[in-house]
Amino acid sequence: MNLTLKTLLICAFFTFLFLTLLHPVSTFAMDPKTEKEATKEIVSEMERFLETDQEAVVRGDVEKAAVSTGVNIQQVSPSSNSSLKRDRASFSAASEDSQIAKVELKRQQAQAKYEEALEKGNQLLVDLWRDVIAQSEKAAEYYQKVAEAAAGNADEEWQWKEAAEEVESSESCLKLAAEAFEKAAIATTQNNLPVATLWQKIAPQYQEEAEYHQKSSEAVATGNAEEMRKVRNILNKYGCDFSSMYLSNQKSEAVKSLREMQRFCHMAGQLHRSIYYLKSAIEALEKATIATTKGTQSVAAAWQQVARTKQKIAELYQQTIKGIEEGDDQDIGWMRAFEEAFDNAEGDEKYYEEQVRRLEEESNAKAAATV
């Protein structure tokens, strides 16, 4: 199925929500046709996942786990429930110890980068790597809480794991921001100002994305784990249509925490898409430079048009963030306002990419004919 950018924009919301909360939740009211097309496959997968023994084992429901896995319930001893819990806790603790070790390694690597930037007197990178170190330490703290909760509190285990993963995403974005600033500096020394300018745009967007991941982490970390689990169970049971109505009418702190978590994830996702198109624009400019050195000016001009179109799409994704931040969560009118702009940009992108393909084929054919 060939999805347009505007459809992907709407689908992005559901993808983030499902992958983040592991249940089919909708906090935007969507028309039935769009909702059905965008969410049918994801909802189906989520429902199948939630029906497996994983949920049963987490709750210690041996009978349900046995049914879903084909185990003869008569062969399960009375102590199996406790044994499953102990095995799961041991496995989870070992897993989190491994995560903590990985986080510590990344912290040490960031510390080395921090000291290097400090020695060079690059205050911008000093500040960035200091923030990376702080995020690494926070992630380690949360993974420690995950390990402690694994001994018997599945609600808190989920909560701290979600918080830890969001902090790690923030940490990764800060690292990429530092790399983007370094690439901008390199392009500047090479007198490649168009590419330098794009890297200078990418770097602060990574910083902003990092901030949204951090806020998402804070939203779930400060929520009530037990109450959030109750809300997730309700949403799991009744599906998308009910979830949209339920979340729009409920005012509990648990609902607020989950909605805030999702909202910041969504904003981070839109920025990530913007960055993707800016990087694609850089690739197009580099290809334009190659075409120029080969003397194929028409190909170079077409690649430059592709680069401009990619930048335009990136700007549109940035603009949607304001709609997510300021708009009513139950009204996608702000999305529809961008539909025409996205349609036009997508059409331009396809047109110029096709033009590049055609011109390159003609250029290659001419080169082959002269051999």
Round the mean pLDDT to the nearest integer and report it: 78
Helix content: over 70%
Counting helices, strands and paired strands, the structural category is mainly alpha
How much of the sequence lies in strands comes to under 5%
Report the order of strands and helices.
HHHHHHHHHHHHH
Structure in words:
- Residues 5-81 have low confidence and may be disordered.
- The chain has 13 helices and no strands.
- It has helices at residues 5-21, 32-50, 53-59, 62-69, 80-120, 123-149, 154-189, 193-221, 225-249, 253-293, 297-326, 333-336, 339-369.
- It is mainly α and 371 residues long.
- Helix 1 crosses helix 10 (253-293), helix 6 (123-149) packs antiparallel against helix 7 and helix 10 (253-293) packs antiparallel against helix 11 (297-326).
Summarize the structure.
The protein is mostly helical. The protein contains 13 helices and no strands. The protein has helices at residues 5-21, 32-50, 53-59, 62-69, 80-120, 123-149, 154-189, 193-221, 225-249, 253-293, 297-326, 333-336, 339-369.
Features:
mainly alpha, 371 residues, 85% helix, 0% strand
SSE map:
Elements (H helix, E strand, L loop, with lengths): L4 H17 L10 H19 L2 H7 L2 H8 L10 H41 L2 H27 L4 H36 L3 H29 L3 H25 L3 H41 L3 H30 L6 H4 L2 H31 L2
Helix pairs in contact: 1-2, 1-10, 3-4, 5-6, 6-7, 7-8, 7-9, 8-10, 9-10, 10-11, 11-13
